[in-house]
Amino acid sequence: MHPTFTLLIQIIMLAIMLIGLFGLVVPVFPGITVIWVVALLHGLIFSFAPPGAWYFVGITLLTIVGLTVDNILITTMAREGGAHWRSIAAAIAAGFIGSLFLTPIGGIAAALGGLYLSEYALRRNKAEAWRATKGMALGWGWSFVARFGIGLVIIGLWALWAWA
Fold first, then answer.
1. Which of 3, 26, 39, 50 has its CA 20 to 30 A from that of 130?
2. Is residue 87 within 8 Å of 132, Cβ to Cβ?
3. Cβ-contact 21, 31 below 8 angstroms
4. Whole-number average pLDDT of the chain
5. Nearest one of 127, 90, 86, 140 to 111, comparing CA atoms
6. What is the mean pLDDT of residues 67-96?
7. If we measure between CA atoms, which residue out of 12, 8, 72, 64 comes closest to residue 36?
8. Mean pLDDT across the stretch 45-57?
9. What are the helix (H) ranges across 23-125?
10. Which residues contact 3 (CB under 8 A, 6 or more apart)?
């Protein structure tokens, strides 16, 4: 393959990865998956020959972490805020339904509202319901930071693979 064409393909791949990375701002956008798919395409086009295979293994493992870290952080911080598992389940259901009928931001609002209402129904205490809801919201914030950082590392590994 001509070096100029190779460079053009790699620049396009980097651009798509950056779209995936900055798309993480939208909660339901599968940015980490987009980045991984581009890395997979890179391997299929340019080869998985060592050390490429090792880079791809690292990218895949980080992708798995990136896909699960949000659930772990959101749930953990909601629990630290005092949320019951039943309320977390209600929040997940409300968020899913809200995301189907509203924008992704509406889905977040529905999830937070569902958590608050469920916690208030359980405790009859606005302050405790708000503390649990605030915990979940902070979990969302930290999960974005974690996924963004993981996305940067994945792109860095791909760049080493592509240009080293």
1. 26
2. yes
3. yes
4. 92
5. 90
6. 91
7. 64
8. 95
9. 31-46, 52-80, 85-101, 104-123
10. none
pLDDT at 29 over 90: no
Q: What is the pLDDT of residue 162?
A: 95
Say if CB 143 and CB 70 are below 8 A apart: yes
Q: Are the C-beta atoms of 66 and 155 separated by less than 8 Å?
A: no
Does residue 7 register a pLDDT over 80? yes
Whole-number pLDDT of residue 36: 98
Q: Could you give the CA distance from residue 162 to residue 56 in angstroms, rounded to a whole number?
A: 11
Residue at token pair 């129904």: 121
Pairwise CA distance, residues 58 & 61, whole Å:
5
Give the residue carrying structure tokens 């909660």: 27
- The whole model's pTM is what? 0.85
The first and second tokens of residue 34, run together, are 């987009």
pLDDT at 107: 84
Whether the CB-CB separation of 142 and 24 falls below 8 Å is answered with no
CA distances from 25 to 20, 53, 138, 144 (A): 10, 30, 14, 7
- For the chain, domain boundaries: 3-163
97 Rama sector, left if φ>0, alpha if ψ -120 to 50, beta otherwise = alpha
